[in-house]
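Appendix B. Chain record.
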Amino acid sequence: MQLKRVAEANLPTPWGDFLMVGFEELATGQDHVALVFGDTSGQTPVLARVHSECLTGDALFSLRCDCGFQLEAALSRIAEEGRGILL
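Structure tokens predicted for this chain:
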């Protein structure tokens, strides 16, 4: 999969300021987003979470799933580590 970096913006959250990076998948035009916290460069392993998209759980706080809770836990854990990436 080839990606092109197309946008970035600072994203203040309750867990601190993340860098939101937008990518476009070249073959399909599909958009992808990464939230980056802290300095993730270098050779040291970085905490990462691949989060499944769930509009109702993540944005609308539905109690039919635990997706929103998983997202909050991942962002909290990344902030505790001081660096990490959420995809």
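Further analysis of this model is presented in Appendix C.
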